[in-house]
Each structure stands twice: as structure tokens, then as C-alpha cells.
Amino acid sequence: MKSIADINAIREQMKSKVLIRDNTKEGETHVFVGMGTCGVQAGAVEVFNAFVDEISSRVIKNVRISRTGCLGDCEKEPMAQVVTPGAQPVTYVALTPDKVKEIVEKHILGGNVVAEYVK
Amino acid sequence: MYRSHILVCGGTGCHSNNSANILKAFNEELAKNSLTADVQTVQTGCFGLCAVGPVVIIYPEGAFYSGVKVEDVPEIVSEHLVKGRLVERLLYKEKATGKTVKALSDTNFYKKQTRVVLRNCGVIDPENIDEYIAMDGYQALIKVLTSMQPQEVIDVVLASGLRGRGGAGFPTGRKWQFTKNAVGDVKYVACNADEGDPGAFMDRSVLEGDPHAVIEAMAIAAYAIGAQQGYVYVRAEYPIAVRRLQIAIDQAKAYGLLGKNILGTGFNFDLEIRLGAGAFVCGEETALMTSIEGNRGEPRVRPPFPANKGLFGKPTVLNNVETYANIAQIILKGADWFKSMGTEKSSGTKVFALGGKIVNTGLVEIPMGTTLREVIEDIGGGVPNGKKFKAAQTGGPSGGCIPAEHFDIPIDYDNLISIGSMMGSGGMIVMDEDNCMVDIAKFFLTFTVDESCGKCTPCRIGNKRLLEYLDKITSGKATLQDLEDMEKLCYYIKDNSLCGLGQTAPNPVLSTLRYFRDEYIAHIVDKKCPAGVCKSLLQYKIIKDSCIGCGMCQRQCPANAISRTDYIAPGKKLAAMAIDPAKCVKCGACMSTCKFKAIVKE
Fold first, then answer.
1. Residues B501, B282: contact at Cβ < 8 Å?
2. What is residue A25's predicted lDDT score, i.e. its pLDDT?
3. Check: CATH 1.20.1440.230 for B454-524?
4. Measured between CB atoms, does B61 come within 8 Å of chain A?
5. Taking CB atoms and an 8 Å cutoff, what residues of chain A touch B2?
């Protein structure tokens, strides 16, 4: 038998796990990770996973993460494009999981583009 | 942490299309590629787009794969999950625009819906209580038990304007209030999951996709009216729904969300399933309760209403599955939120099971007040094969037809009644120019005649006589006097039957008479079925000047009704064929064989 506190603990713990299935995102930020051969070769899978982990573990709503094809500048992969409503898309280059953490923190949550990682 | 989730639909539709093996194949394939730790597979309830099943959704992209086969699984795993490339050929293509749609939420089918009742269907694993809890499940029960008085609960439900989704539209809060006020130490809550309308499967999908929502709501209702025991009456023909509901009840008991001293608050409530044997009349509330008591499912006279004298003679609240599925949301988000959806007198949303001549067969949830046109054209994708929309049938055997002239009517309880149909439990069957309206009325009446329990005379005998009139009309033997007598009989049955089944049984006849009287007249006076459905009024004919005399039709005819004539059409080499109407069984085999369009039915 569980107490109310137990149920609430399950809820908090499970929330981050099912968040990526949220289908009703309005005014959402869309993250595209370039996953052409060039991107995958350069480590885009790790970058993609880092985005998913960051967004899920912080229970951030209204962010959708997609895999997409080659973003065109193969030399600077792994790349990702962050599209926020009403703003110009921002393309980040030569990403690593650590840089992703910073981008989620400063750009997606804070609203400030991390200029040093931009193309 | 799982980086990707594969959701495989486990609703009845996709299940019959082998979705269980697709799930198994995904698990095997993921193991082969060492992805088991990164990718979670989940069997969910119905997504709604049953027409293109089996459906598989992969998150975080929300990639929407339709018509997936077991053989496609290795490709999806190696392309999508290993290399990160969507498998274009399996992505859902919108039939109307031919456009490939990548994400589920981008389809017109989903974009125009408002999902309240179905919010968790196709999103969570119905067999895992933790996923329901993650979606704020059981928070409403906690709120009610810790911070609200029973009367406050009823006041919220009352203020929300929620009306019974089983069809009649009685305000749910008032039902609860009557039961709370009723004198008695023992009270019950019951759930009507005896969904019997032909073509309706909303309640099944809710039980299959989100069973805890019903359990939570029943516990809230029990708290509000002062009950400690509940029953869910569900038809045995819904094995997946029954199984998932039982799993959900067991899990809720293990968590202390059902049983004695729930969550340590001192409130007791237990829930049991009762299986129905599939009698349509057991969807009527008094018959349903008689059946739970262990007797033959027959209705009884009301009043006394169940709120005063229901199950085992005790005050009882009985609501439909979809009604319950709204309750937790109303408690959590408030009556004003619920009232903000829908129309003034019908708040909230309604789930419809779209079927018949429609592109997107499936389950849709719309705010009340959405027009029929939006449901059929925008969400449903319109009538297939370029045919013309003729009517939509709502309310099953108790409802009626909505013709094209009312295409722009906002759907709510009162509007549908004003045009001679009714909301019903939410089956919506679309008909095109190839459907004969007399035949449709006959179809529904055959159903009610079969399902009449036989307790009262108007329903038992009246409907049988009514069906005989319809038989007479469709076989071309009726007179205009019969039509008049038939209409009188309809009103007699409506006014004198004991329960809802008999009182509404003539509705399909009355509503088709109201909008399609000309079709009845055509059957009676011209002895013709305009849609070409009623076999006894049809004749297959060979146009002698189009016939090249190949004889294919003669070889196909099972009744030896086709023979060669002496007539050779100009420009043809062989003599034309002809059909002997006395021998013809009207099977249509000749017409589908003829390559020269020389055979017509009229």
C-alpha cells in the first residue's frame, strides 16, 4: 500500500520518462539534429541523445527533437538547428554532449543564443 | 533513460491486424542491435486512425508509421533507430492531399481534434499504472480525498455542465446529487460499458487505452455519493478491454488506490467487473442493473429511478465509460476549463466512432459544437471514391440520419434532437449515394427486433410488424396506405414501450421518412430502388448493342439465366446475350465480369 507521498514520488520520477511522448506541443521549440552519414560519423547520435536526455530529465515541455538529414556544412558536423517561434533558426556547429547541455540551459530555457557555438 | 520510445497500437483494430507480433518483432530486433537499453517498446491503446493500422509511433520525433507489417520491423530498426533516417515509404500519407506526414500531431486527423477523454489513448501503456500516474493520474482522487467535501465534488461536476455521454445527455452532477440525497446506508456506483450500438467502439477504446481514468472517476463518484462498492458492467465480447481493466484494478489495489483506507485517508472503495453476455437491452440502465443482480436482463418501470432504487434496491449512480473519463480532468482543471469547450448547453468534447463510407475510419474526439462538415471532411477525410455524401447516421439503432442539408449544423445534444437524430453513445456511420435509406432503416430495425427482450408488447410485436412493413416496401409490394399505417405504428411504439430500446426503435424509420420520403415513394410507386440496393426491385439487363457476344457472363452465371439471342449488333461478330429475369438471382456476377460495360442494373 502506498501513501500520497509515494504516489507523488512515482509521478515525479515517471514524468521525465514519458515526456517525450507529449503530442500536444503548442508554441514549441523544435530542435533538428543533422543525422546524415557525415553527422552520424562525427558523433550526431551522442548529440541527439544528449538533447533527449537534457530535455527529458529537466521535464521541459514544448520542445520537440527531430532527426533530420545533412544540414549542408559537413565539415562542421555534428550540427543542430534550434527553431523557436517568432525567431530566426539558429544553427549550432561542432557539437558535443557538453555543449548541448549549455545550449539547453542558456538558449532553450534562458532564451539567449550561445553565440560561440553558432556557425 | 530511454532515448527513443516505440509505441505500438494494441487496440482491438490493430490487434486483429497482428500488432502483438509487430511488438514482439521490435523487441527481438532491438536485442539483435543491442538497443534494448536505449529504446523502450510500449503497447498502447487505440490511436484512433484504425483505417491505416497497424500503427507504430516512434518518439521523440513522433514519426507516424502506418500499415506496418512484421517484415518492415528490421528496416525500421536499422534505418530509423540505428542510422536515424525516417523510413519514408512507411510514413503515413494523407489520402486527401497525398502528402507524406512525418509526425502524428501534423495530420489533419489529429490537428482538428481536442483530446480530453482520449488524452492518454495511444500515449501511455494501459497496463502500467506508473505511466498513468505520470500523466497526473490519481491526482484528482488525492485532491478530492484530502481537500474537498463530497458536496463540493458534486458542485464542481454540476458547474462543469457535464452531461451523460451514453446518449441521453442527462446532467451528471444532478444524477450524483439525487443519489447523494437519497436515503440509505448502502449505495453503489456502476459503470455502463455495455456498448452495443452497431459501429460504436468509443468505450471499448477508453477501457483498452486508459482504464485507470475510469477507475479513478468511479472512486471519486463513490466518495461524492457515499458508496463503498462499484461495478463495471462490460460486455464479454470485449476481451482486451476486460483484461486491461482487470489488470488496472489489480494494480490500483496493490497501490492502495482501491480497497480499505485508500491512501491512508480512511475512505473505502472496491471495484469489481461484471461481464455482460452481449444483449443490447442490457445497455438500458434498469436492465443492466437487473443483469448485475444475476437475473435475466429485462428493464423495469421508472420511476423509481436508480438514484433512489437501483442496484439491489439501493441508491445507485450509473454513468457511461466516456462520462467517467471526463471526471478526473474536471476535478483537476476546474469546471470553468471544461465549460470553455463546447457549446452553452453541451460543454466539453464528444468522442465519435467514424465508420461507413469515410476515408479515415476510426476514433475522433471533437469539442461539442463542431459542425458535421468539419468532422466528415476535415477530420474524416471525406467520402472515398469521389462519391457524394448522402447522410450520416448517429445514435445507432436509437438515432437517426442527418442529411446533407444539415451538413453545417453544430453537433451537440439539443441540435441533434431538433433535427430528429440524437447524440447516442457516439457511433457515426457515413452513407453515400450507393446506400438505400429504406434498407438502412431495415438494417437497424432488424437489429432492434433481434434485441428486443420481449417484456412489453409494443416493442416485441410492434417492431416486428414495423419490420414487415419495411420488407413489403423493399420487395415492391407495399401501397401508399401501408406507408401511412407504418408511420402511425412508429408513434404508437414510441409512446407505449417500456424502456429506451422500444421508445427509440422506430427512430431510424421516422428520420429516414422525414428526409428521404421520396425514396420510400420510389420503392412503393415506381417499384424502383434509386440506390440500386434492394434486390427484389432490381433487374440486370444486357444492352444488346454494346454486347460483343463473348459469352463470359454466361460462363459466370450460377443460375444458367443467360443465353444467346439471334441478334447481332452492328459491327459485332457474334450474337448478343440476354438475361432471363425469371431465372436471374441478381448476384451481379455477370456485371462484374463484363469488360464491355454491356450489363446494367436498374
1. no
2. 57
3. yes
4. yes
5. 17
Q: How far apart are CA A82 and CA A105, in angstroms?
A: 13
Pick B129-335's CATH classification: 3.50.50.60, 3.40.50.11540, 3.10.50.40, 1.10.10.10: 3.40.50.11540
Query: Which residue has cell 525516417?
Result: B86
Place of cell 477504446: B205
Chain A: closest CA distance from residue B590 (Å): 51
Domain boundaries defined on chain A: 4-117
A5 close contact with B: CB closer than 8 A: no
| Domain A4-117 fold | Glutaredoxin (3.40.30)
Q: Give the global pTM.
A: 0.88
Do B263 and A7 lie within an 8 Å CB cutoff? Answer: yes
Assign 3-state DSSP to chain A and report helix, strand, coil percentages, each to 5.
Answer: 50, 15, 35
Tell me how crowded residue B21 is: count the other CB atoms within 10 A of its CB.
14
For residue A57, the distance in angstroms to the closest alpha carbon of chain B comes to 9
Judged by DSSP in three states, B30 sits in: helix
Helix residue ranges per DSSP H, B394-506: 413-418, 437-451, 457, 463-474, 480-496, 500-504
In the block, residue with C-alpha cell 523544435: A30
pLDDT (tens digit per residue) in B388-413: 999 999 988 999 999 999 999 999 99
Given CB atoms, is A67 within the 8 Å cutoff of chain B?
Answer: yes
Q: How many CB pairs under 8 A join A and B?
A: 93
DSSP 8-state code for residue A72: S
Spell out the CATH class of B539-601: alpha beta
Q: What is the ipTM of this complex?
A: 0.82
Domain layout of chain B by residue ranges = 4-106, 129-335, 349-432, 454-524, 539-601
Q: pLDDT per residue over B340-389, tens digit each? A: 999 999 999 999 999 999 999 999 999 999 999 999 999 999 999 899 99
